Amino acid sequence: MFIFNEISFIFSTRFTLTTVPSPCINWCDINPENGYCRGCYRTLSEIANWSDLTNPEKLEIWSLLPSRKSQAPQKI
To answer: Taking the CA of residue 18 as centre, how many other CA atoms within 13 Å lie in the half-sphere pointing to its CB?
Structure first.
């Protein structure tokens, strides 16, 4: 039992699992003109599937957001 606890402790302190955070800013409103959320610039499917995506897939979406934001109509 001691060995298991020691291994568990070593694993939990040395190997921290991290995940790419969501770009959500809690302003959820899909723009019907382009299909992107006006808050985070993701599509509905990207939002719905976020928790199932791998970190590389999430990073790929993050890389697309600046261009989506720059293409969005700006309010005056």
So the answer is: 8
